[in-house]
Design a protein that fits this description.
alpha/beta; Vcp-like ATPase, Chain A, domain 2; Rossmann fold; seven-stranded mixed sheet
């Protein structure tokens, strides 16, 4: 059977990541007759459309940009924000702890700007679904725009409901929580999950973690653990390599558990 290779040519309407340096990157949509303006001059999209991803292009001031194919983390980090997003370092652990994959059904709350929602949708597509609960309509509107931009909206059902009041879905593979009182959702998560299904909760404070762990142990979950993920970059240069002065340190704690069948 002939394999279909990933598309590498830039078409009109595609999103591209204009890379100048690690700290200077821009996510833009290539449209004929239009340009993208930066402090280093503007880049004409007509000069990009039809080229291969990874091609170089000069701005109007002569500065070089590389047009890269955006990855999931680019859509997450460049998303429109009304709330703090979940960082890729935490997203990676959440996805791994949840055990999800193509075809999984996942309940999530709260949606926020949709950064974590996008990551979950990316890993459950094309047959899976994310049911994302959010009580604020303005957040849902922003999340919908971000999901559409990432090409992931079809794999998400956005629900303007309070998950603390209950979960509609049953026999889901995972419940992922990023909200203030996750412990109040634990009993609902137990009812919604398949046997051995996973719950993963992200919380910024240790007080939230303690209450969540207690609720998990009291409501039929085992393999309960909490972790903190710290990431420190390296400044790499021959003879001068050392850890970077600044780092993305504490963002939150991730608590995990698995459903057991109660006797």
């Amino acid at each position: 059977m002939k394999q279909t290779l990933p598309e590498t040519e830039i078409h009109e309407g595609d999103y591209v990541l204009l890379y100048m340096s690690p700290r200077k990157t821009y996510l833009a949509r290539a449209e004929k007759g239009k340009s993208f303006h930066t402090h280093k001059g503007y880049v004409e999209f007509d000069s990009l459309i039809g080229k291969e991803c990874g091609s170089a292009v000069k701005s109007s001031l002569g500065f070089e940009f590389i047009a890269l194919k955006p990855q999931l983390r680019d859509f997450i980090m460049k998303s429109a924000r009304q709330t703090q997003i979940t960082y890729p370092k935490d997203v990676a652990l959440i996805v791994m702890f949840s055990g999800i994959g193509p075809g999984s059904r996942v309940v999530e709350a709260g949606t926020g700007t949709g950064a974590l929602t996008a990551a979950l949708a990316y890993y459950v597509k094309p047959e899976g679904k994310v049911y994302s609960y959010e009580i604020r309509e303005e957040f849902i509107a922003t999340a919908e725009k971000n999901l559409k931009r990432a090409g992931l909206k079809d794999f998400v059902e956005l629900k303007n409901k309070d998950i603390v009041a209950g979960i509609d879905e049953r026999d889901v593979d995972a419940v992922v929580l990023d909200l203030a009182p996750p412990w109040l959702v634990v009993p609902h998560a137990y009812s919604a999950l398949k046997p051995s299904g996973a719950i993963v909760s992200f919380s910024p404070t240790i007080d939230q973690v303690v209450k969540t762990v207690e609720a998990l142990r009291e409501n039929g979950f085992v393999d309960v653990e909490s972790v903190e993920c710290l990431m420190r970059g390296m400044q790499v240069e021959r003879g001068k390599t050392r850890p970077q002065t600044l780092m993305t340190a504490h963002t939150g704690y991730i608590t995990f558990g698995r459903k057991i069948t109660k006797l």
